[in-house]
Amino acid sequence: MAIGRPRRGSNQFGRRTAAPRTSFFGRMLTWLVTIAVLLGLTSALPVVWVETQCGPQGRVPSPASISPSVDDARFVPIITALPHKRALAGSFLAYPQWYIVHAYEEFAAMLAREDEAAFDYVGSVTGYWSNLCGLTGFTAALGETSTESRAARYVSGVSFSLEMIVKGAYEETIGRLSARWRGREKTAEDRFALATASDQARFLRERPWHDYPFFDALRRFWAETPTSGGSRVRKVERRIALSGELATKGVYAWGVGWLARLSPAEQRVRSVVRGLRPADRSIEGLTVVETLPDGRTLIETPRYRGYTEIVRTLLARGRELTEIAGNERVLVTVLLPEGKFADSPGAVQVFAYPLQARPGWRRVGLDATIPALAATLRRVVAAGGEFEHLYEP
Q1: Residue 381 has pLDDT above 90, yes or no
Q2: For every residue of the chain, which 3-state class applies, written as one string?
């Protein structure tokens, strides 16, 4: 008698066999890996978009086309030696990193009034990539971009996007429900989250994201935040959420920091100033390198927010910047009320978008000629606006 092929789910004797079972943890691991892969692919899609759709956008304005008083041919840079001489594109490509800093600042400002679910996480992600697209096309027309520079912006963008997507998905579901359960009175965990967000926003003005002490913040969270008082549901949910966030960021920051230390960035920048007085030498962070034959002064200062504050002080004292890192143009951002404009012959608008934390206001990026910077900023103030930041190359 011939024996046929056993039926599916049975052995050779025709008896049914149990299908192998996958453990709960195995299924969870499969789901987590699948979600991680999907998130990674979703976050990487904007990179493809920028690379394929964000090319040079026509002729880039020269200083002469921005301001009739500036003549391209007459500009002879004083700062010509590396590493002090830097490409103009570096000023504009510095902005995407600062977009993330500004996003953290807006998140902290919003958290002082609302809960985490009120923040526009998707808008923050799309804003990063749309700004990067425009600036990529702008700097590509300058012919000064590098693969390394683009890669750094992509890594930052993908990391920021993943953080915003995951945090947004959680806060707009579980976080929103626990906040409703809690009521209007915030818990100690909520207050610690606000203090940490504000502290991180201040920290990022001067230091890279990966230098922030996430593990110290996690230790302080458990040591200083009382376990009693307020909504029990919200307290437990916030402890789990904030602990997981700080621990994850701490591990990731350690890895990014290790890589960053392999090729540390320059922390000083050189500029040329006209009319520097002896009293200006006492400005914190300012070092006089050389007095030039024409009376101008070559100075060296810290970068980032410290540099913006030094420039703000010099301009307020009536001094004139004529060059930064060998360039006569620079990107600056100003804050303006909606409907207000600060038209200037010494600057061209590069981008503008509304502020989440200040309804009715917008951030405006200006491609500004450095010798006309004081006049440009006076127009901004006259329009009711504020000088926010100067992005040195």
Answers
A1: yes
A2: CCCCCCCCCECCCCCECCCCCCCHHHHHHHHHHHHHHHHHHHHHHHHHHHHHHCCCCCCCCCHHHHCCCCCHHHCCCCCCCCCCCCCCHHHHHCHHHHHHHHHHHHHHHHHCCCCHHHCCHHHHHHHHHHHHHHHHHHHHHHCCCCHHHHHHHHHHHHHHHHHHHHHHHHHHHHHHHHHHHHCCCCCHHHHHHHHHHHHHHHHCCCCCHHHCCHHHHHHHHHHHCCCCCCCHHHHHHHHHHHHHHHHHHHHHHHHHHHHHCCCCCCCEEEEEEECCCHHHHHCCCCEEEEECCCCCEEEEEECHHHHHHHHHHHHHCCCEEEEECCECEEEEEEEEECCCCCCCCCEEEEEEEECCCCCCEEEEEEEEECCCHHHHHHHHHHCCCEEEEEECC
